[in-house]
Amino acid sequence: MGVMHQMSDATAQSLVLPAIVDLDAIDLVRDQLIEAIEHGPVEVDAASVERVATNALLMLMSAAESAKRYDFSFHVLNLSDPMTAAIARLGLSESFAPLLKG
Description:
Elements: E1 4-5, E2 13-16, E3 20-21, H1 23-37, E4 42-45, E5 51-52, H2 54-69, E6 74-77, H3 81-89, H4 93-96, E7 100-101
Helix pairs in contact: 1-2
């Protein structure tokens, strides 16, 4: 499951995506994203993602837009090969490019 660590105000909160980000996991991830975005910059670690649902990718893009409205940074780090492939397969590479870091 995802884990969120609250750090100092200036430090980005880190949210680790689970191995399978499907419809069963999406509600928990969404709730963690909403909580994190309200408090400051967010970094989402996608290193362990083995399978990701289209809705989860769209949710990450939406979260980035929400963070932008709050004037906080939002980045996705360490994209796993399966997540990179899913983004490319869905034609979202250009949309995800601004969110990627590292």
